[in-house]
Design brief:
The complex is a heterodimer of chains A (about 290) and B (about 290). Chain A has about 290 residues and is an alpha/beta fold. Chain A is about 35% helix and about 25% strand. The chains are: A alpha/beta (about 290), B mainly alpha (about 290). At the A-B interface, helix 2, strand 5, helix 3, helix 4 and helix 5 of A face helix 1, helix 2 and helix 5 of B.
Chain lengths: ~290, ~290
């Protein structure tokens, strides 16, 4: 493990009643933003829950922030430096945004009232919710609720920030604003960002990990993954039957992703989405259709 | 100094518990069902509507027992389950499950405080308006019978916390409340039996009991046998059992072993207290 490695997973397996969610996953993370891509059921949420210390692996070793989280004391030490936004997050009835984040701050051991309230206000401002902090959560939109959930993860500027689908339901303007927040967090912390949005990964991440059927299928730079699609994306006048994916673009031409060159086609600049489709094939398409 | 800098050193676990307990106590005190219970308690106390019991007889303790204890099952169950939809985020925080549960248990002192105020008022009232006085029950025993109201008011909510930790279905709080009412109702069979240690056992094993017959039942009023003091110890230990069982759900490793040991000790002491309460003269004494 290098000096800056904050997350080290070795041989992680997780089984649920005969189903293998994660299979021999090895992963090391350093400060910076790492994107976690994969189709539905690939094991992304399971991986994040293990790193967040809320789920124990069936097999394998986990080392977080220089500690093995195997005792209550070590768990508390790790959790003090960890922020986690779960994929699904409900809120207790009757809470305002401020009250909920304040409650989470108490759980994160902010015991002095004045600094805790300052911190709650800071994270709510970070996610642009300072003006609606006093509103009941049930009166907020889905995107605002998602940002409340993100605000609690940002409490205390954690060294390890785990985000499961942070931009789901968030409008484009807010998404850009959140990218700014996350990119600042990535300058000093280790951020693991699980998402279906390849554009978020392309915009934010230094590194991308692609999970499929519980296994790591790709682990490298975003540019490295995009490079795997070079020479395999075409613009043609018609869809090509051999293409892995094909769709009509706004210019009227068809974007064909696949190895076979359609007739009279021009090579196109590949995107992260093209590379992801080529890497995972039909399973990635199924996820794209589903989402 | 910035908020982040001030937060750099982790606080002692007791500090976190105290802060969290304060937050949970405020949530408890603002719960609509608790406020309704307190309002009804005040109204019934002001109008001396104690279902035939003299205001200063021990029978009137059923009022705080129901409006703070039984309604408290729903309040505490609701508070315990309220964070269920945020479980993963809550579990990733450094305040562990035992601390969170202990904070909820401490919040159950809120209805206990109200019950204590009720007991104090009843004693003030008894000095202003003389109570039914009898050699059959000493002042200390009467005080003990009234003190049980505080335990009833804390015990119901503690059951709510325990049920909230161990079950997930939404009707669990209602079932617990029905059980908590049904148990003492069934135990009144003991009053219909000829006075004996068996009848005392049937009556006193329940977490609520009546010591004195109500006024105007067409018979001479009486006070039931058994020891109010040991009964108070018994129901207090039942509260301890509920709180420990609630915390056990969140414990693992050494903490779990310690809590299991504590549970066994509390259960043993509860059985011993019940036995001592029952062993005391079971004869029904006319007032």
């Amino acid at each position: 493990m290098t000096a800056t490695t904050t997350v080290k997973l070795a041989g992680i397996r997780k089984r649920y009643r005969g189903t293998t969610a994660l299979d021999a996953v090895d992963l090391s993370l350093q400060p910076g933003i790492t994107g976690l891509l994969g189709p539905n059921g690939a094991g992304k949420t399971t991986l994040l829950r293990i790193v967040a210390t809320v789920l124990a692996p069936t097999e394998g070793h986990v080392r977080l922030l220089g500690r093995m989280p195997s005792t209550n004391e070590a768990l508390a030490e790790v959790r003090r430096r960890l922020g986690y936004l779960p994929q699904e997050m409900g809120f207790p009835r009757g809470f305002t945004g401020f009250a909920f984040v304040d409650y989470m701050a108490v759980l994160k051991e902010w015991t002095s009232r004045a600094p805790r309230h300052d911190e709650v206000r800071r994270v709510l401002e970070l996610v642009d919710l300072g003006d609606v902090a006093a509103k009941r959560i049930r009166a907020l939109s889905g995107g605002q609720r998602r940002r409340i959930a993100l605000a609690q993860a940002l409490l205390g500027d954690p060294d390890l920030l785990l985000l499961d689908e942070p931009t789901t339901g968030v409008d484009p303007e807010q998404r850009v604003s959140l990218r700014q927040v996350l990119s600042r967090a990535g300058e000093r912390s280790t951020v693991l960002l699980s998402t279906h949005q390849t554009e978020d990964v392309a915009a934010l991440c230094d590194r991308v990990v692609v999970l499929d059927q519980g296994r790591v299928r790709f682990d490298g730079t975003v540019l490295g993954l995009v490079a795997t699609a070079a020479g395999r994306v075409w613009l043609a006048d018609a869809p090509h039957p051999a293409a892995r994916a094909s769709w009509r673009t706004g210019t009227g031409r068809h974007r064909n992703v696949g190895d076979a060159a359609p007739p009279a086609a021009d090579l196109a600049e590949p995107t992260l989405e093209d590379a992801y489709l080529l890497l995972l094939g039909d399973r990635a398409l199924a996820t794209a259709v589903a989402s | 100094m910035t908020a982040l800098a001030e937060h750099a050193a982790p606080p002692a676990r007791a500090t976190t518990l105290r802060t969290l307990a304060g937050v949970e106590a405020r949530r408890y005190a603002r719960h609509p069902l608790f406020l309704i219970g307190v309002a009804l308690l005040i109204w019934l106390t002001a109008t001396e509507s104690y279902g035939g019991y003299h205001p200063t007889s021990g029978g009137s303790t059923f009022v705080p027992a129901f409006f703070l204890g039984v309604l408290g099952v729903f309040v505490a169950h609701g508070l315990t389950r309220s964070m269920a939809r945020s479980t993963d985020a809550v579990r990733a925080a450094p305040a562990d499950g035992i601390t969170r549960t202990a904070a909820l248990c401490l919040a159950c002192l809120v209805p206990g405080t109200v019950a204590l105020a009720w007991v104090t008022w009843t004693y003030v009232a008894s000095s202003l308006w003389p109570a039914t006085e009898s050699a059959a029950i000493s002042t200390t025993e009467r005080a003990v019978v009234f003190a049980a109201a505080v335990v009833y008011a804390v015990g119901g909510p503690l059951v709510g916390v325990m049920v909230g930790r161990w079950t997930r279905f939404p009707g669990a709080g209602l079932l617990a409340a029905v059980g908590l009412v049904g148990w003492p109702v069934l135990a009144t069979v003991g009053l219909a039996m000829p006075a004996s240690r068996l009848s005392s056992l049937v009556r006193l094993n329940a977490p609520f009991t009546i010591w004195e017959s109500s006024d105007g039942q067409g018979e001479h009023p009486w006070i039931a046998g058994g020891s109010p003091g040991w009964y108070l110890a018994y129901i207090t230990l039942l509260c301890g059992l509920a709180a420990t069982a609630a915390m056990l759900h969140e414990a693992s490793g050494r903490q779990r072993s310690r809590l299991v040991r504590l549970l066994v000790i509390l259960a043993g002491l509860a059985i011993a207290s019940l036995a001592l309460a029952v062993a005391t003269d079971p004869t029904r004494v006319p007032l």
